[in-house]
Amino acid sequence: MIKSMTGFGRSELKGEEKTILVEIRSLNNKYLKINTKIPESLTDFEERIGKLIKKEMFRGTVNLTLEYKTSEQEPKCFINKDVLKKYYSSVCETREEISSTQDVSLEKLISLPGVLEFKKDTGNGKVADDVWLELEKSIKLAIDDLNQMKGAEGRNLQLEIEKWTNQISLLLDKIETKSANVVSGYRDRIQERIASLLEGTEIKIDKNDLYKEVAIFADRCDISEELGRLRSHLLLLNDVMENEEPTGRKLEFIVQEMFREANTIAAKANNADIIKDVIDVKTEIERTKEQVFNVE
Q1: pLDDT tens for residues 71-88?
Q2: Which residues are registered as beta bridge partners of 70?
Q3: Domain 7-74+122-150: which topology?
Q4: What is the average per-residue pLDDT within 149-162?
């Protein structure tokens, strides 16, 4: 069964000490593109997250947002009091030397280099592994939720594709019926034209020459092979949708081949009614193509 490339998934794990929230969205893309938005403290896991997504998805633009909160959140930054005191001491000494009465505000001192410092994650490997197990579980739950939505959308896409391919099949039956009369119609027209041109003269046309001309025409406008291949592509399209995954790129190739066969039929048909039906076939193939572009 096919899956859509578009969908949304979400998971949330709440505990006494921490909360993990994962949201994942996927959009159409010919290839797989992964964008992650995660806390700075978890950037070491970014590569693992990417590998986890690649195991489950084959193409599309995937946007993952992860929030990780603990009950005892330590401040991300702190004031280095020793550095602050040294700055203030230097300012006071300089102020006395130049006989200045102007004081320096605390805000200005804090903005000086080295006063405000940011903490870095210093967790050991064991803690990191424990955190990853929780993140992995949350991400997998979000991906499962996303895949459920993509599967539901895929079923709707398949119904639409089957509707258009059934129309194509009916049109091919019409074209095959009409093509059977193309040669006989050409033979009758050429006989009437020759008879009209030679009326009142003693010139006669050898019937073998006439039959040879009709045979050449019949071979030139024979579309039975193209009709057969186009029907074969329709069967393959349905088989791929039912039995393979991922299917998107293969379906795109099959639709491209369907266009090629339809163009060949139009070029060889030599009949206005058939060409009109071929235009309808190409319209249905285009509709199929639009749906296939949404398949993962």
Answers
A1: 655 556 778 888 888 888
A2: 18
A3: Ribosomal Protein S5; domain 2 (3.30.230)
A4: 94
